[in-house]
Design a protein that fits this description.
About 40% of the residues lie in helices and about 15% in strands. It is of the alpha/beta class and about 350 residues long. A nine-stranded mixed sheet has the order 1-9-8-7-6-4-5-3-2, with helices on both faces. Strand 8, helix 8 and strand 9 form a beta-alpha-beta unit. The radius of gyration is 19 Å and the shape is globular. The two termini are about 10 Å apart.
């Protein structure tokens, strides 16, 4: 197999790695990566208590951010607005899914990141505390996402005003929920934003990628182990049938997509594959490769300048989607706002 995909989506390389970002990478390589490596060597399936989400309650958010708890049928969520953001349905809204490999993290660990995305996009965000393993399979996480999407519809937002976003495992959910809501007849979302997305549980393509052993956050073995753990949990819960990962879903009718990934991440294999397949299906996809940045570096926006720049890119993408929808739905004779086009990827041979 080839060691690196020839990307059809004309990726944009975002150069530069500040001292802060290099220090962050050093910390992950010598702190987080050894812990993940130790987890992969355990002879049994072990999911540690999600203490990190409880401790994250102490983290500050973007100044002026307000949020309230929303009760959904099977989980909870937070309706969050950064300073200066109102709840007007004219601007649209974001549905956000946190990362954590479907095993850890939550709305507390990601509230700070979500508040900055809300501020950059000028839209409120529904941050979903979806069910995770080992209590529930991935299918339940997707179901919670669809329920959250319908909650936004009930608040008066149209499907084409809702951008679905997520990081890491949340990127998996962003695509899966977009597919599920369209299949259920709820309409087509405005767009998808995927930050360092995990899009395929099968580790085979990651093993053959040039970044297989370059990632500062995760050893390759982590994804093999995650695939095994997920399969074991599904088997114990009696989940039947083959899971269809986002890269293997029907993509021709998917909404415009923005994908962020660090240039040395092992998950670049997933990002490139999805970008290729979206492009080959005729879907606009802006794949941004950030020079030497780590997994979900956007979460470090308080002190890493590239993270702030990346969040502004996300905000610009979401705002342009909203402007495009306002332009399309403007009544005859009204003043129309000229919306900047979402970067369109050129077509190429299928992967």
């Amino acid at each position: 197999m080839v060691s690196h995909l020839s990307v059809a989506a004309e990726p944009r390389f975002m150069p530069g790695a500040s001292v802060q970002s290099r220090l962050l990478g050093f910390g992950l390589r010598h702190g987080v990566r050894p812990l993940v490596s130790a987890w992969t060597m355990l002879p049994f399936d072990f999911i540690p208590p999600n203490l990190v989400d409880h401790l994250a309650r102490l983290l500050p958010v973007h100044e002026g951010t307000r949020w309230r708890t929303i009760g959904l049928p099977a989980c909870s969520a937070e309706w969050l607005r950064a300073t200066g953001v109102d709840e007007s349905t004219d601007r649209g809204a974001i549905l956000y899914f946190h990362g954590g490999a479907f095993l850890t993290c939550g709305i507390n660990t990601h509230r700070r990141l979500v508040s900055r995305i809300s501020f950059a996009s000028k839209q409120p965000v529904l941050n979903v505390d979806y069910r995770q393993m080992p209590r529930e399979p991935v299918a339940s996480s997707v179901h919670d996402g669809v329920t959250a999407f319908t909650w936004l519809l009930e608040q008066g937002y149209r499907a084409d005003q809702i951008t679905i976003a997520g990081d890491s495992a949340g990127g998996y959910l962003a695509f899966s929920v977009a597919r599920a809501v369209m299949d259920a007849g709820h309409g087509k979302p405005a767009g998808v934003v995927a930050i360092s997305p995990l899009l395929e549980f099968d580790p085979a393509r990651k093993q053959s990628h040039r970044n297989a052993h370059r990632c500062q956050a995760f050893p390759l073995r982590a994804f093999t182990r995650l695939s095994e753990v997920t399969h074991n949990f599904d088997t114990r819960r009696g989940v039947a049938g083959r899971r269809v990962c986002p890269v293997d879903m029907p993509l021709a009718d998917m909404p415009p997509t923005l994908i962020h990934v660090g240039s040395r991440e092992v998950l670049m294999a997933d990002a490139e594959l999805m970008a290729n397949r979206l492009t080959s299906a005729g879907v606009p996809c802006d794949l941004q490769i950030w020079d030497r940045q780590v997994h979900v570096f956007q979460a470090a926006a308080s002190w890493v300048p590239e993270a702030r720049a990346a969040i502004e890119e996300i905000g610009t993408f979401v705002r342009h989607l909203a402007e495009s929808q306002r332009d399309v739905t403007a009544p005859a004779g009204s003043v129309r706002v000229a919306a900047t086009r979402v970067p369109a990827a050129r077509r190429a041979a299928s992967v």
